[in-house]
Amino acid sequence: MLARLRAALNSDSPLARFCAALTSGSPRERLLRNVFAAVACLTGLVGYALVVHAHIPVQHWLLWRLVPLWGYSLLFLLSSLGIGLVLLRRVLRLTHLPPVEEGLFGMTLGSIAFVFGMYLAGVVGWIRPWYGLVMPAALFAGGLLELPRWLSRLKHDLDASTTPKGAMRWLWLTATGVGAVCIVLLYLLSLTPDSISFDATWYHVPIGQDYARAGRIVPFYGDVNRSFPHFASMLYAWGFSVPGMLVEQRWMMALHLEFVFVLGKVVGVAALARYLLQGERVPGLWAAFFLFPSLFLQDQNPGASADHFLGFFAAPVLLASMRFAERFDRRYAVLLGASLGGAMLAKYQAVYHLAMAAAVVVPRAAYLLARAASRALKRRKRPLLSARRVLVAGLIASGVALGTAAPHFIKNTIYHNNPVYPLAQRVFTRSYPQHARSAEFMEKAYPNAPYLPKGKGLERQLIAAGNFFTFSFSPHYSFTRYVPSMGSLFTLLLPMLLVIRGRRRPALAAWATFAGVWMWSNTYTADRYLQGMLAVPIAAAAALLVRTWQLGTVARLGLVPLVVFQIVWSGDVPFYSGPRRLESALSLIRSTYEKRWSDAQRFKFRADHRAINQATPPDARILARNYRTTLGIEREIIFDIQAWQSLIFYEPVRGPAELYAHYRSVGITHILYPPNQRPPDTLQAAVLFNELVHRYATEKRRFGGLQLVTMPKEPPPADELPYQVLALGAPGYTDGLYPVEALHILPKLQPPKGQEPKPARAWPRDTNAQAALLDAADAVVLGKKAARGSRNVKLDGVFFAAERFKNYTVYLRQQRDTPRAEPPPEPAAAGAPPEPPAADTPPEPEPTDPGAPPEDDDPEDPDG
């Protein structure tokens, strides 16, 4: 066979002539070769696809569900970057920046413009599929004025970089490869809805879901957290509005948008480090971002919350501050104001960025003004910098910052009569919603005491200064056994500022970091909030690494082991708390091979919530009793956590009829709760809630571990007051009979010792008197240790267990249609006159000290 083919090729046959034409060099023959190659490849593709299709049909590939996520993320990135470059170069006339820094500022301005577009849509009711396409398309079209030229400048800048040689080349390749692996791993850990963090499941992502469902911005009165700044949620609203995706894909879209901003943080580190190195190009330096691996940890990982959106603005704020402080150029004043305003739109923790900017700008302004004044006194020539120029530039930066953040404050003013709601309720006395104790709850019960600043006065400031040196070594809270995983190279390299050349800019970044950590220490020391500013110390550490390396061989003998130790020590950090998220991603990827091709099989996320969504009408208003992870329930949700909302207030409620009226007054149509889990804040709420649900509600459905209850159509009969509860071993209460409204103490607001609520009738020692007191009770709260001593009462046949919590059980009387027995009078002390009957409601206890130990948050899932 081969001999005949060889003979045919050597002859003057058509096959021989065709092969000769393919190997000739004329233009016609070159085109023929290209056509042949293309046809051969496409033929191979078709044949290969047919073979594969027989095993796994092409239409069932997971790829088709991921492509929209990548496409929409790319559309957001290009539209934001493009319009931002136009604003930077054509409006601000800033055309001399390095391409990487230019791209960072372009993304900063463009993302703010994108969010402004979403606010506009929310005001006029345009959060619709058509707007989700038209708005970014319009921004992208405008961005084409600068985007192609910027890409060309970026390519030229990268080509101009000197490729390392020798050992440095291997170091560069290793850093780039490891950085790329970290990005892929981070993407996998952020791929599926299982990666959405606890907080994001009940307000960050549901805000965007609810805005898109309503088509506009709507008020949220049942959760104060939804009144905080929500730059991220506005972008999530866009993700929920665009066409062509499943609900589960939209949840994943939120994670993808956040991942874009995490990559923006990487770019920010590279741009800031280059500035700190006075423009010196160091290929692969961006990979230093992953020497600080805490973003892989639970609660600091990308989880569709807001910390990494805030963190994106850290590098632009410091870069703009440094460039602004050089000459107080008004263009940089606008850039600094916009960056600070964008941070304020993301989170109130933008005060870290404000502190960093002030640390750079204020000392520089004072120095230049003092120098100008000195020159004026000596009657030298007119100084380049005047007090007027500094003042005007500062006012421009402040005005732009406030104007950029204005949409949030305007929204709160319209809906809550308070621009910073739920804060400052004592200042804005007409805040809505508000009740008699809402300001106190917000000030004393809302914060977690362990994260509040420690000490007072000078002691507090010394602790704050110490945190600058210890924040990476001593976590303030942890889901990983307090293992120090923040990354400590910044702290450990600070002494290098004494010996390196070009130390001024890295020292200024370190000083800005000190200001940010100081502000963090004086506000709320939750470690994950440091993600909002961590790009600055990372960039400073990267610059210190380069300058220390440049000191010489002896310095490298110490530097290399230090960095290697950091890498080896933290190499397993992504797997401390990431296996569940990683396994979820791998399971989704395996779904194609395992022939789980239907969307119902592939996207089995939050099935119970999706079922609840189907079981309730679109206009349902659901009360979630101390249950927060409600993502997937596309209905209006009202939470009843007393310190975290002001619409539901249990303290004045005295019976089930009043509770029903209270719920109806705020439009509650359904109740959702996990039976026997997550008890209400107070015993009062626990008893009355169970009384209403078990006694009067008839329509109940179970969805996994959740109970959905339809509000009774008819109200309960008028309350027979007082509704009396016998508390035995109940946490925080003396044994005895109480009117239910006396059981209103929040665990975080325990009254001072000696001022605890007193029972209307104390629990007696006499057995007959105990039985009489039990007969007078409508309900019993029995603590888990109540069986000890004289509190071992028999409730069978008269009371039933309505709900069993970890520390106590709520029992309700079997029948309430028979007259209650009156409680026996308290026995009088010997020689004393009889004590008059106790009032129905005991005196309200005084509020506790804000430093009281908090109740365990008891998250609803292991990733809380």
Number of helices: 28
Largest sheet strand order: 8-7-6-9-11-10
Q: How confident overall, as mean pLDDT?
A: 89
Pick out the low-confidence regions: 828-864
Question: Oligomeric state of the chains?
Answer: single chain
Summarize the structure in words.
This protein is mainly α. The protein has 28 helices and eleven strands. The protein folds into five domains: 20-55, no CATH class; 63-159 and 177-283 and 292-306 and 576-604, no CATH class; 313-432, no CATH class; 465-571, no CATH class; 607-710, no CATH class. The protein has helices spanning 2-10, 14-23, 27-55, 63-91, 99-124, 129-143, 147-160, 167-189, 204-214, 231-241, 247-276, 307-312, 314-327, 330-346, 351-377, 387-416, 438-445, 457-470, 489-493, 504-521, 535-549, 553-570, 579-590, 599-602, 607-615, 656-665, 683-696, 767-775; strands spanning 621-624, 636-639, 670-673, 700-703, 706-710, 724-728, 736-739, 761-762, 779-783, 799-804, 808-813. A six-stranded mixed sheet has the order 8-7-6-9-11-10, covered by helices on one side. The protein is globular.
